[in-house]
Design a protein that fits this description.
The protein is mainly alpha-helical. The chain folds into two domains: about 35 residues; about 50 residues. It has four helices and no strands. Involved in cell division.
Amino acid sequence: MPESKARKKAVDKKRSKNRAKERAAANKKLQSVRIADRAWVPYVFVPVGLIGVIWLVVFYIAGATLPFMAVLGNWNFLIGLGLIAASFFIATFWK
């Protein structure tokens, strides 16, 4: 038995639904790319870690002679190690 012809209105409606689905899929894919873009991570975690290491090295070498480090005392350990820990935390965002 031959298939009946579809009405123009029904065909247009079906096409518009398909286009809407395609647009939604494209938007979802584009959004996931935006969220997954983590190119900034190495540019942040490397300097933060290096600043932490440099802070500790400067404290060990010249901590008593630098006025701001002498005032902080042993809190310099917390600052340096905190920066290094923050660097490792930031590194977990890298994909």
